[in-house]
Amino acid sequence: MVIVLILASGGIAGQAVGRQIKLNRLKNDFIATVSHELKTPLASMRVLADTLLEGNYKDQKQATEYLQLICKENKRLSGLIDNFLTFSRMERNKHAFEMAKTSPALIANAAAEAVKTKFSKGQCEFDVNISEDLTDVSADHDAMVTVLVNLLDNAYKYSHDDKHIDFRVFNEDGLICFSVSDNGIGLSPRAIKKIFKRFYQVDRSLSRRSEGCGLGLSIAKFIVDAHNGSITVDSKPGTGSTFTVKLPAVN
Ligand code: ADP
Asked: Residue 36's pLDDT band (boundaries 50, 70, 90)?
C-alpha cells in the first residue's frame, strides 16, 4: 500500500515537473519569437527615420514615401503586439469572454468593415454574402470579430495578385456558419494538420514578408473553442482555401 502511494505521488510529482518544463520551454520560445518579430519592424523604422533626419532623400515625394513606410511598420508592430498580448492572456487562461446573445450579421459586418479599406487597395475582389434569416448566437462580439478578421487577413496575405475573397454567413443544420474562401496559395494535407498550432508557419520567409507570426489561427481556434464552436479548413495547394467557423445558434 505504502509503495503504491509512493509510486502514485512520484507519478503526480513527475507530471507536475513535466508540465513545468513544458511551460518554461513555451515561455522561452515565446520570448525568443516575440523579440525576433519585434526587432524587424523596429529596425526598418529606425533606418527610415535616420535617412529622413540626415536629409538623405531626393524630394518631398520620397520623404512622404518614407513616412508612409514608417506608418506601415508602426501599424504592423501594433498588430503583432495585439496578437502577442491576446496570446499571452490566453496562455494564462485569463481571457474572460463576455458572452451575449448577438446577431451573427453584426459580427460579420464589423469584420468586413475592418478589412474593407485594406482589401480595396490591393487587386482584390471581395464578396460579402450575409444571409438574411440568421438566428442569434451566444458570443463575445469583439473576440469573434478578431477570429474573422484573422481569417480574412490570411485570405488576403496568402493569395497572389488578382485575389478573390468570398465571405459568407449562413445557417446550416442549426449552426451559424462563417466561411472565408480565397483563391490563394492553398495548403498541403500535412500543413493542414498543423496550422492551428501556435507559431506554426508553412513558409516562414513568406509569412514574415506578409506580416505574420504564426499566432492568428491558434488564437482563432482558442476563441472558437471557448464558444463551443468549430473551425475547419478545406484547401488544396495552388487552388485556394476555405476556412469555416461554426457556432451553435441560440433561440
Ligand atoms: P501567420 O501570422 O503566420 O499568418 P496564422 O496562425 O494566421 O499565422 O497562420 C499560420 C500559417 O497557416 C500561416 O503562416 C500560413 O502558412 C498558413 N495559412 C493561414 N491561412 C492561410 C490561407 N488562407 N492560405 C494559405 N495558407 C494559410
From this structure: confident
CB neighbour class for 199 (10 Å; exposed up to 12, middle 13-18, buried from 19):
middle
Residues in contact with 39: Cβ distance below 8 Å, sequence separation at least 6, in sequence order: none
Are 126 and 155 a contacting pair, CB within 8 Å?
no
Q: 151 versus 34: which is more confidently predicted?
A: 151
For atom 21 of ligand 1, the residue with the nearest CA is 154
Cβ(179) to ligand 1 under 6 A?
A: no
Q: Say which range, 18-27, 74-83, 171-180, 222-231, has the weakest mean pLDDT.
A: 18-27
From residue 78, give the alpha-carbon distance in Å to each of 1, 148, 172.
Answer: 58, 18, 36
Q: Is 181 in the pocket of ligand 1 (CB under 6 A)?
A: no
Give SS3 for 204.
helix
- Ligand 1 centre distance from Cα of residue 132 (Å): 30
pLDDT band at 202 (very low <50, low <70, confident <90, very high): confident
Q: Is 201 in the pocket of ligand 1 (CB under 6 A)?
A: yes
Question: Range with the lowest mean pLDDT among 108-112, 121-125, 179-183, 216-220?
Answer: 121-125
In the reported structure, the alpha carbon of residue 161 is separated from the centroid of ligand 1 by a whole-number distance in angstroms of 17
93 has pLDDT over 90:
no
10 CA → ligand 1 middle, Å: 41
Closest Cα to residue 87, out of 132, 27, 20, 42? 27
Residue 195 C-alpha to ligand 1 middle, in angstroms?
7
Alpha carbon of 204 to ligand 1 centroid (Å): 10
For residue 41 and ligand 1, the question of a CB distance below 6 A is answered with no
